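pinging the channel bc i need a second pair of eyes. not urgent but kinda urgent?? the chain im working w is below, pasted from the shared doc
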Amino acid sequence: MTGRGRPRKAATPKTDCAKGKTTTAEYPENGFTEEKHNATTTEQKPKGRNQKTPNSTNEKSSEQSSQKKKTKNFTEEINKPPTDDTKAPSPGSRATTGAGKSKEKSEVELTKPQPETPKDKTQDSATATKPKKRPGTAKSEEKTKTTQPEDTTKTSIKPTKTCATVDSLLSTTLENLKIKKRDKSDTSEVVNNLIKHIIKHLKKNTCCFTTAEALNTGSYYENLKISKPDEFDVMLSIEVDRVKIEPFGDNRAFYSVALKRGNNPLKKFQDDDILCASEMLTEFRDEVKKCVKAFPDWTVTRKKPGCPAVTLTTTVQSVIISLDVVLSIKVRTSWPAFTQQGFQIQGWLGTKVKQDYKRQPYYLVPKYEGRGAVEHDGVLAKDAWRVSFSHVEKGILLNHGSEKTCCEREGQRCCRKECLKLLKHLLSLLKEREASFEKFYSYQAKTTLLHACSSRGKDSDWSASSLSRCFLQLLGDFMGHLEKCVLPNFFIPDQNLLFGIDKTKCLRLARCIEEERDNGFPIFRLN
C-alpha cells in the first residue's frame, strides 16, 4: 500500500462472522475510515501521489497524519513519497509496483492481529511512533545479551582467585605463628614454679599481701600468643571488701581509690582516705625482688614509669622469657556504675552469660600515664588506679561462641581467634617497621575484636571457611576506629583507648594497613 496512514489488518473469518453487523469506525488521526459489513471489511484509504484521485482531501489528511506521527527512520523527511511499512527501500532502489504492494499488504495484514477497539488503536498508534530496530540490530543485541553472563563470569573469577591467594597466605601465616607444644610446656613450667614461690614468700614474710592469689591473664592464657611463648602476665591480687572509686583525669581510664570499712592491712598505704598506689607498689616490688634472689636465672628489670608490673626475665632454650607480675586489688562488690552501658554481649553470648560475669569481682591495678607528680583534686597521678576486667576477657575468649560447642570437637569451628592473631601480628610488624607506632598495642586489637563479635554475634558470621572475609572485616573495623581516633573500652564506653595519640599517627597507621590489604599483605610474605 502507498498511503502514509497506518495499514488496517484484515480480520479473520471467525471474528467477522461472530459480529455479523455493519460497523463503521472512523480514525481521523490516521486518515481513513473503516466499514465492517457481514464479514466483509472495506477500507477507504488515502491514495499515494502516484495514483490519481478526484478528491485531494485524502492526500491532505494523509500528509497531516504523517506529520503527527514519527516515521521508522528519524532521518527521513516528512514530505518524501510514501514507502512500504514492511521494508524500507535501500538508497537508489526503485519503488515497488501497486500490485506488489497490494500482495505484500495482504500477506502482512493476514499475519498481524487486528485491534479490537479504537482505544487499543490509539495505544498502538502511540507506540508506533517509537523507532523500530533495524534488521541486524536484534541479532547484535542477542549476541550482547549472551556475552554479558560470560563477561560477568570472567570478572567474578578475578576476586575469587584473589581471595584464594589471600586465604592461602593467611593460613600459611597462622601456621607459622603456632607455638610448639613442647615449647609451651617447658616455659610454662618455669614460670609457674617462680609464681608459686613468690606467693609463698608474700604470705610468709608480709602482713599486707597475705591474701595474694595468682590470676593468669594475657594472651598466653587466652590461647592467643603468637610466634613464641616469650611473654606471660600474672596478676597477684589482694582481696578487699568495699572501695570508693572516683574518676581521675579526663579520660575515664584512671580512678582514685579509698577503702571503706574494716581493719584491712592495706590501710597502712592510705593517706587522707586515698589508697596510695605508688607506696603499695613499691613495697610489693621490694618483696618480689627479695624472693627472686633465690632464683639466679631470673633478673628483675628496671621499673617503667606508670607500669603496674614487676618485670622478670630469664632464658629458656635460647628464648628470652618475660614475666610481668602485676599487683592488683580484687573488689568483691557489684561493678561500678560507669560500666553499665558497656559489656554488650547479650546478642552474642546471651543475657544469662552476661549476668554470670557481672556477678564476678573486678580488679584495680596501680597504673597511670604521664608525669606522676601531676595532681587532680588533691590526688597525684602516681597514686591513680586503673580498672581491669582481664579475667572476664579471658573467660569470653576461651568460650567465645554463640553456640556452646563452637570450636569444640563436636561443633563447628570459627575464626575469631585466628583473625585476632593476624591483626596482632600485622600490628607488631608495622610497629617494627615504624617507630612512630609505639603507642599502639595489642589490647587495642583485642578490644576491636570484642566490639566486632558483639555486633556480629552469630558463629556463622565467623565461619572458619571464611577466614579472609572475616579478617578483612576486622581490619575495616580497626581502620574505622583509627580514622575517627576513637576506640571505646569494651567495658567502659566513656574511656577512649586511642586518647592521647596524635590523630596523624592514627591516620598513618590506617593508611599502612590499607596499603597492606590492597596489595595482598606483602608484609606477611616477608616474615
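so The mean pLDDT is 77. and The radius of gyration is 43 Å. — does that match what u expected or am i reading it wrong
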